[in-house]
Amino acid sequence: MAKVFVSFLGTGSQAKQPGYDEATYDWPGKSTTRVRAHFAQTAILKILEEQAGGEGPVDKVVILCTRESEDKHLRPLRDELQAHLTNPPELIVPKPLVPTDMSAVNQWGWFEQLLEVVDTGDTLIIDFTHGMRAVPIVFSSAIGFLQRAKEVTLAHALYAWYDVADKGRVHPIVDMRDFYVINDWAEAVARLSDDADARKLGELAEKTDVEALRPLKDRGLILAFSEMTDCIRNVDVNHVGEKVNAALEKVRQTRNSAGGSAQVMLDLVWRKFSALATGYPSSGHYDSAYFGIQFAIIRVLLEHRLFMQAYTAMRELLGSIGMAGLPEDYAVKKMTNKEARRYRERFAEAFVGMLQRPREEWDVPPPRQSDSSQRDPVRDRQTLKPWFDRLEQAGIISEETKKLVKEMTKIRNGFDHAWTAQAGVQPDIEAAGRRHLKLLDDLIARMIAQKLLA
């Protein structure tokens, strides 16, 4: 893992003397002395050497140049580095040289050269000062790619601000590294919205400090995002609405004090997760509002390609249909209390089993149970039978419904057993998920239309 300095050597001024015009450079906040040199590269490396206490400032110096700039300026640059630095580095000039014809093919060739000289885990210092107008575009693209593909750390992105109209002034070296942090934050927000993963955002909040993005570093905001995405990924249907509401309220509050890029990224999160929010508290019953939340979370899971979680939620939705028809004797005010969880464990499971078994097997007790729950599946099926009959008579439960349940169960079992009992993962898993969700959506819509669901 090396510290690599990458720069471009242009043709410089049109003056007859060799080298660029001599100038005095200063790196505000970094250097204690000013450096007078022909080349900005010399000033940058001299200041870095000063910061390193006289040690070699970098491990590699990579100079990209055209044939013309190599002939005209490479030797003067090397000589100047020898004169200024205590430990002058060896210059690496990748071949073939950069062509002056910056066609698309040549741009890609130049980009590939940059990838070859920077290894995985390297620290990169990149200098944009000189060269053709394509330099910032190619260098910027390379920075983003190297950070992700080779886990490169960007230490500095430098531009020596040379004012031709005022050659006598002190010319500042500007570090634009903080601006490139926007790539990391954009990726983190995209990961949150696309994959329901808040971890990258939390990591960035701990280690970066850019004023424009300060609103995104709010610990309360990051915690709300983490709790929301944990709920989604863990298919915690009973709490997801609450957590999403809390996260979006933090987004709303933060957005009021944010501007520019931070506001744009917060808006992306709002658009992505607002479908999971509820404008009213849960009634505590298995009603249309409750099923609406279940559908919303399944859609988000499918969109995030979290198929195992999506099928878990679909199976739970089927069990919830059974719970919606429990007699009043079993009604519980709060779904999440101990009694409600105990009922769900019994009756939701029994209802899904009834959808998969022929009626003649409903009265057959299962093999001896190893747990101590004292459940009686035969009795539970008999409790649910009037509701099941009503759904069947209304055309809600049909042979198509039972086929759907078998397909869904097969896929869910495939995930449960890592697909070892089958030839492999179902190839059309995403399309199947969307098809199954639509069938469930139609089923609930018919229940609401026939007033079987409040």
| Chain-averaged pLDDT | 82
What would the CATH topology of the largest domain be? Rossmann fold
Mind telling me the CATH class of the largest domain?
A: Alpha Beta
CATH homologous superfamily descriptor of the largest domain: SSO1389-like
Order of helices and strands: EEEHEHEHEHEEHHHHHHHHHHH
Largest sheet: 8 strands, mixed
Number of domains: 3
Query: What are the low-pLDDT stretches, counting only 5+ consecutive residues below 50?
Result: 14-19
Helix content: 40-55%
What can you see in these coordinates?
It is a single chain. The chain is an alpha/beta fold. It is built from 15 helices and eight strands. It has helices spanning 40-51, 67-84, 104-117, 135-149, 177-195, 199-207, 219-233, 237-257, 260-273, 288-303, 307-324, 338-356, 377-393, 399-416, 429-449; strands spanning 3-9, 23-26, 35-37, 60-65, 91-92, 123-127, 153-160, 170-175. β2 (23-26) and β3 form a beta hairpin. The longest helix has 21 residues, at 237-257.
